[in-house]
Design brief:
The structure is a homodimer of 367-residue chains. The first copy, chain A, is of the alpha+beta class and 367 residues long. Helix content of chain A is 30%, strand content 30%. In chain A, the strands form three sheets. In chain A, strands 5, 6, 9, 10, 11, 12, 16, 17 and 18 form a nine-stranded antiparallel sheet that branches. Chain A has a five-stranded antiparallel sheet with strand order 7-8-13-14-15, covered by helices on one side. In chain A, helix 4 runs parallel beside helix 6 (118-125).
């Protein structure tokens, strides 16, 4: 076994999920993630946790979802709910054999099944859950990379010194927590937004930081009152459609104009979902320098160093004052912009990042 | 997909497990059984059951079992117990990638883990559980067969007209239920045993018949007061040791002498386990003519038509009068003899089977 698989398992179990002796662990294993699952099982055994392994197969899911009449009703699984309610830790070990395995499952039916399984989804979220991926050939293909090349990419992103990255991200969180206004200047971009009374999340890939993805490596908050223009130069996939070079214009916090070089219709559909879809739900600063390229996977792309992302739609409660709810929407669509060149990120008029270099880093130039 | 995979799934869901709308189903999928699992998921969806899929991976199990110090303690998984208690139906879809995947797990540790998980095992037995296998290359190899050849073998055994086989087996059950004494005559064999007050089980591969294996196809009971000699000419594996041509001599129900051409020590170990290991726990009549050869797998071998098997050790409660317990032992070791030639099976002095042909079949000669 590749040593990195073992190290990935250790990071997942210790840093991310903080597994302790006696913890009741459920691990969900995707079709192609067997090797990582074996490594995780060994780590859990060493730590005297218990283990139940579920099979997160898209193809089994597809067969189950497609079966039956058009008017078939769905219900959650009681054994699954009981299982999740008894779990302390839930580990999702992703990495299938085909990222489009569910392509021929009717969208309405998928939505129906999703609605019927709200209880199990909520029970999962109530556990200390962490989601990661094993670098399968299918994910390499989606990233447009060779398999070995993609393995290197994933392990560079996952096998960080998380303790020290968390410390560095704490600087960014402190700046955002203390600040009132963020301004982003970049190519075709001059955007201001308020972060008054908002709390930033130091998403350091650990349940101890309220962060549930491995890798992570971003600091995010919930902006409002957005004004100005922003240009997203990182290509992405929205609803299975390729989207490129998107510009949005905001007035009074709402999108009033938009354009895209490619996939403009997909953006239009997002904006038309509901009222909240026209407002921002998230401002995120990517700080994981182990991620050095875009791979068309939001798990990695939005964490990449020298990037900033904004999401249209739903805001996370963790960023809001206790009891207050932020922007609400059925969607949360992240869009990313590269800030490695000709860019400045300002908080209350002070430059925090210029051309990808933060104020606390060597080589930072304030003016 | 091979049509036979779909048919296998249908037999499992309808005939064996009797799944109905609203049933809460848990399916355990071995590493190599993905295709059958997909087919079963489709059948369950059609029947409006719910589905939770667990991953029955020997390699994940091995990693978990081997981890940690020598004095590591084991405990059952609470999520697994809760899951099983909420399940109506439990389907085990076997078929791994290596039948010896657990070869380097220490026996004492395995026993310790087994003891610690009694609660989950009992919860599983309390559901309508059925165990079957997908014909993997690993199982083909254990059977000494080519993969396609083994697929044909498995589907011939599984895709029977179970309704009509169950009817035929009912004849055998009636004879045994009415009878007091069974006598087996064959090469180097003349054995009598009492079946007074015993009830035979028509093991027709369905929970409706208290039968939990697919394939099945045997009628079995719990004999006692065994006298005489028996010779088992079918090779088998006991505790990973090859055993061949075993003879046992019984007096007053107990083994008083034994010999084996190969693996005599394995037989000796079995007999020395405890007091009950020297007495019979089962007499079974194989009646599945879809099974036409021995494949070193007890799931198939003991069901083969024209065979009789006897087990040393534990008897099944289903064969005993209510409240009475039969032969008790930590072991239950089946041994098989071919009765297709030069043999007679008699109940109360009347011939029921001669040279593999039953009384109710064409070509039967009573004398």
């Amino acid at each position: 076994m590749d040593d990195r698989v073992r190290e990935h398992a250790e990071v997942l179990v210790d840093w991310s999920a903080r597994v302790e002796a006696g913890d009741q662990v459920v691990m969900d294993v995707a079709e192609g993630a067997h090797d990582l699952a074996v490594a995780v099982a060994a780590e859990l055994g060493k730590r005297d946790a218990t283990l139940l392994t579920t099979y997160g197969s898209s193809e089994v899911g597809r067969a189950f979802l497609r079966a039956g009449d058009a008017d078939r009703e769905f219900a959650h699984s009681e054994p699954e709910l009981a299982m999740l309610e008894a779990a302390d830790v839930y580990l999702r070990v992703g990495g299938g054999r085909n990222t489009t395995a569910l392509a021929d499952v009717d969208g309405d039916r998928r939505q129906k099944a999703r609605t019927a399984t709200t209880a199990t989804r909520e029970a999962r979220m109530d556990s200390d859950w962490v989601s990661t991926v094993h670098p399968t050939r299918s994910l390499a293909q989606q990233a447009g990379m060779a398999h070995e090349e993609y393995q290197d990419f994933v392990y560079d992103a996952v096998l960080r010194d998380w303790e020290s990255l968390a410390d560095e991200m704490a600087n960014m969180k402190d700046v955002l927590d203390a600040g009132s206004e963020v301004r982003i200047e970049a190519e075709r971009t001059d955007l201001t937004m308020s972060i008054e009374d908002r709390t930033a999340v130091n998403s350091a890939a650990s349940v101890a930081y309220d962060s549930h993805n491995l890798p992570s490596g971003e600091v995010f908050t919930a902006p409002h009152a957005t004004e100005g223009e922003v240009f997203f130069d990182v290509p992405m996939t929205i609803d299975a459609r390729r989207v490129k070079d998107v510009s949005l214009t905001f007035e009074d916090g709402e999108v009033v104009d938009f354009a895209a070089e490619q996939g403009e219709e997909a953006i239009e559909n997002v904006l038309d979902t509901d009222e909240g879809a026209r407002r921002l739900g998230e401002l995120g600063i990517g700080m994981n320098r182990g991620i050095d390229r875009f791979t068309d996977s939001i798990l990695f792309d939005e964490k990449m160093g020298d990037t900033v992302h904004l999401a249209l739609g739903r805001a996370y409660d963790a960023c809001l004052p206790e009891g207050e709810s932020g922007n609400d929407s059925a969607v949360h669509v992240d869009m990313i912009t590269d800030v490695s060149e000709n860019s400045r990120l300002l908080v209350d008029g002070e430059v925090v990042q210029r051309n990808g270099t933060f104020r606390w880093e060597e080589g930072f130039e304030s003016a």
